[in-house]
Specification:
single chain, alpha+beta, outer membrane lipoprotein receptor (LolB), chain A, twelve-stranded mixed sheet, 7 helices, 12 strands, disordered N terminus
């Protein structure tokens, strides 16, 4: 029996045992309480949404950020771990990635400069994680810088280290806030997307600085039928843009993929 159904039965039982006068008083009191609760909920929702929108606006105008993203996905058969150390700016960025899963592990570096993605990856990353090259070519180009236009499929997939993507990934459905002193915790749910299967238990939150209203940390969890995912992103150095340039001697992707 649901809580709502149980509450309904209790109300009916109470009404049956009271006089008309008492019932009228109870109804009036209930209506007043309901109105008060509704008003309070609306006020809280407005407060949370205002804080959330302020956070997004501050992040959008920061210009750049450094962040460390950690993610672990587990199922009954395998566990995958990812770590991304990223410096993102408006139209440029750099990222160091490490990963492990399915008995494999690897590292790769991505630099975005202009309309080109520069990639330096080991053999395992090319073959298993990025699924971009067969083993023979992966061995040949492992450790070398490769220049990939953003218009290429792989380039588009790696074009995720700009501020617009950071702000997009900060978006979720806020529901409540709680002061933590120097910061404020906004809790809620992730946006409904095709990436989250129906029936999954999920939660999302962002910790915001009480001083700057910029994000300090973001977390996400999901679980379904024995599989789970936990991720966290820790932000720092908002607005402290770092110079990023294209590496010299990069091999054109057209040569690598030919």
């Amino acid at each position: 029996m649901t809580a709502a159904a149980l509450a309904g039965l209790l109300v009916l039982a109470g009404c049956a045992a009271t006089t008309t006068s008492t019932t009228s008083t109870s109804v009036a009191s209930s209506t007043s309480t309901s109105t008060s609760t509704s008003t309070t909920s609306t006020t809280v929702a407005a407060s949370v949404n205002k804080l959330y929108q302020t956070m997004l606006s501050k992040a959008s105008h920061a210009g750049s950020v450094h962040y460390v993203a950690l993610s672990q996905s587990s199922s009954t058969t395998a566990t995958t771990r990812l770590e991304f150390v990223t410096d993102a700016a408006q139209s440029s960025g750099s990222q160091e990635a490490t990963w492990s899963g399915g008995g494999h592990s690897g590292r790769f570096t991505v630099i975005l400069a202009g309309s080109t993605i520069y990639l330096q990856a080991d053999e395992a990353s090319y073959v298993t994680f990025l699924q971009a090259l067969p083993a023979a070519k992966a061995a040949k180009y492992a450790g070398k810088w490769v220049a990939i236009p953003k218009t290429e499929k792989l380039g588009a997939a790696l074009d995720t280290i700009t501020m617009s993507v950071v702000v997009k990934n900060l978006q979720f459905l806020p529901a409540s806030e709680r002061s933590l002193g120097a910061s404020i915790l906004i809790s809620g749910q992730p946006l409904p997307t095709g990436a989250i299967p129906a029936g999954a238990t999920t939660a999302a939150s962002t910790t915001v600085s009480s001083l700057t209203f910029l994000p300090v940390q973001q977390t996400f969890t999901a679980s379904l039928n024995g599989s789970s995912e936990q991720s966290s992103v820790t932000f720092s150095e908002w607005g402290a843009a770092k110079p990023m340039g294209a590496p010299s001697g990069a091999i054109p992707w057209s040569t690598v993929s030919a």
